[in-house]
Structure prediction request, 722 residues.
Amino acid sequence: MDGAGGCDGMTAPATGVSARARIRAVPDGRGGTALPSLAGGGPVALRRTRSADPAAARVTLVGAMSAPLGGDRIVIEARAEPGAALRVDGSAATLALPGRTAEPARYDVHLQVGEGGRLHWLPEPLISVRGSELRQHLSAELSPGARLVLRDEQVLGRAGEESGRLCTRLSVRRGGRPLLDQQLDFGPGAPGWDGGAVLGGHRAVGQLLVVGPERAQEPLPARVLGDSAVVTPLAGPGVLVTAVAPDALRLRRVLDSALTFTSW
Amino acid sequence: MHLDHSHTGHHPERHSASAALPDGSRRALRVGLGGPVGSGKTATVAALCRELRDRLSLAVVTNDIYTQEDAAFLLREAVLPPERIAAVETGACPHTAIRDDISANLEAIEDLETALLAKGAPLDVVLVESGGDNLTATFSKGLVDAQIFVIDVAGGDDIPRKGGPGVTTADLLVVNKTDLAPYVGSDLEGMARDAKQQRGELPVLFQSLRGEPGARPVAAWVREQFTAWTARAVATA
Amino acid sequence: MAGAAALLLLADGRFPAGGHAHSQGAEAAVKAGRVHDAATLEEFCRGRLHTAGLTAAALAAAAAAGHDPLALDEAADARTPSPALRRTARKLGRQLMRAARATWPGPELDELAAARPQGVHQPVVLGLAARSAGLGPLEAAQAAAYDNVSGPATAAVRLLSLDPFHATAVLARLTPETDEVARRAGTAGSGAVEDLPAASAPLLEITAEQHATWPVRLFAS
Prediction:
């Protein structure tokens, strides 16, 4: 860990795969969205898939990613230019696995949404496998008139398995100002992570973030969803759903139920 | 919303019960009501509100032990409109909130002062009701200008004799529920004698809210305090 | 250590800034059965220390280091998704401001009080109060980190009738980690505001909103 206890600040690992994938979405001039740049890299394969929304382009992260492995450094950049609508989802969960070295893996996602642009970032869960160590940073830069729906789910260990170490930071800036900054640190070596303040024995944790200018006009009231989830209006124009659950299935169920009344 | 009318860019320090509002005007008189659990503090506050609300601009701050029940009672009884009632939560230590760490109560009082001033109805008197506690609980002088200690005849007629800071030092001692004295075998004359012994010249009022004159004597005492408070404020202005 | 007495005063649970009425999540954890004895209290406090505690301590350190308190208040908002926790933080910030201006008066406290009469996040005020008392970022972080464990421990004594010696022993066992968190926060506080730690705890956010809806409770938060 670095001095501040963040997920950042690591030097680039000397071993393992270093890969960068890019998605860039622009308006196609006919009411739809074009993808002038769609480039996978390393273990990240990207496919343009059929979108239910005619205005949006849809990209699917394909395959059961057996990465990142310890020592890998994977970067995905997704940008929705002004007026573009992009939806990114996944076909299967991502597994964080132990590598040949003791070095942690790095997984960075940089999202950018321009004025009037829309981005749905809805990957499948990240599963922290026993013995793995992954540092993930999801960052988003939004224009004031941008819209974002972002889901981030973490599962601590496969069924019945101990968790690996998973440190993840979600930082969202809007118009250059901080909107949301959250860092989670779970698994062996993370102090107090399984106690009554942090996870309390739950093995799946997720966040669903919805940002849009509409949220400034009519902020939702905070809302408790059962025993282990809550919908919270942020100080800025966004709403965050935070949920913990015994497993990935029940986590998704809660986040999906929240999506019905949080979306713009 | 707030009271930063000074236009100097500096928010006047209001850490204690300074006698003036930030705009220089007189703030409300603050009267604390303390006493053991069940002695009738909330009922007395309700009765005082009914007696005084037509003559004075009133507000109440309650300090409940683990609920907002007292505030809810006052709201239900409609003794004052909701914007004149505030509840302070005390973290299981009601005496701390009125004596050792008065910050939450000062905030609540000032919020009421601010809100009512903004409505053009500046407050005359704020009644601060403590959570039911023991005989040692008294209000800080940083929080209230005068305090009433409420005991009752059913709690034992030896309470005045036992003394304690509430009984001996409160500006007014109220012995409540005198109508129950015959049933619980309390000796009112003895209580009066013991109280006199403990309190010297400090006043004691015996009260029953079930019948005449109800809370009127205590209300009259509060009005006297308010008159003196106003006179002091004028003299120092 | 220079200023040790001022630090003791600032970190004293009796410092009259309203903390006694707040359990910092302990009341909700007790009700959910997650805290029921000294061992579970210790894990609760440890988790809080390394999440909300680290974040608060770094904000306090940054304020003590002279960062713009309004930028720090914004950073604290981004680190506090729960509106109940934001309300509590600002309320306690306002109460601490009152106490700090009475104990260590200074122009920076006055200016912040004037700029934000409804209060700023408590750790920011704590850092500025430390600065006004002549203390540095590390001391501000120490006060904040200690507050994040001593508050729940005190509350647990009242909520569970826990043996006070056991609760205090929990705090004693946590002292090396409390110092370590304060050290990291103190260092981070001297860096850029956007790089401050953002460590968070899902259950603290979730249960804060649940607790805020309870009609019957001992603590305000």
